[in-house]
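FAQ: What does the model actually see?

It sees only this:
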Amino acid sequence: MFINKYDNKKYYTLNNYYKDLYNSKVFKVSLNTNLSCPNRENNKSGCIYCSKNYSGDFGGNPHEPLKVQFENIKNMLHKKWPKAKYIAYFQANTNTYAPLHTLKNYFEEVLTYDNVIGINIATRSDAISDEVLNYLSELNKRTDLTIELGLQSMHEETLKLIKRGHDLNNFETMYKKLKSHNIKIVVHIINGLPYETKEMMIETVKYLNNLNIDGIKIHMLHILKDTELDEYYKKNKFNLLSKDEYIDIVISQLEYLNSKVVIHRITGDPNVDDLVEPTWLVKKFVLLNDIDKEQKRQNSYQGKKCQKSL
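And it is asked to produce this:
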């Protein structure tokens, strides 16, 4: 049975991974460079779950210099973990969608900060040019680099419905390019997308497991005010997962993931003021505890149904 050494959870947490690797607490410092997104520029609204006024709901204040953002967030986290190391996390928007010299300025700057041991870059599979890819390959040799790719679902009909702006082939092609340079990849998926069944959501995880991903972020679909998804939901009233349904699906997905895959997230953090549904998401720690309890009750753990699992 798979059990974490540090968290006593039945899946491989990010905290456990970093402690194994660095023998230290490591936390991410989320940054916002106010970059754009090709999907928003192409269809004017982006994915249907993105706010129409979206400017990056994550990270620091995009109007502040990068160093100021970093210090402000680091200092808050440092009160809890004074001896921690840091990952500079370019989280908001599409962080490879800019000229190479612009990206270099951002990424090279954070590497000069004390105790920064790595960089995480959130982006899209259709937003990494060959020029940027070559730079990332070189950067990967100098720091602990992780690229986060949004996929959300492997199912083409879902990608079209949510106006993702790329297909599965585009994702897989970029995934293989990054892997050919030995770059670590974390993939984002969303459970509860309109009209997807439990079996479809598990198929997405099986597909990613066969790609040998390094990590995964699992989110529950949440409807925010001022989004195309909000308008679509009002008209169509598609089924939203209950908390119990979500827990059941996540536990099943974890069973099909190799135990070496790092679980970066198994829920999201919607802004309460903007959230329409589902309201049970606001109690994040209750949800996490309920997942733990249900795994124990079912004797379930990451990799249980995965032949590649260690």
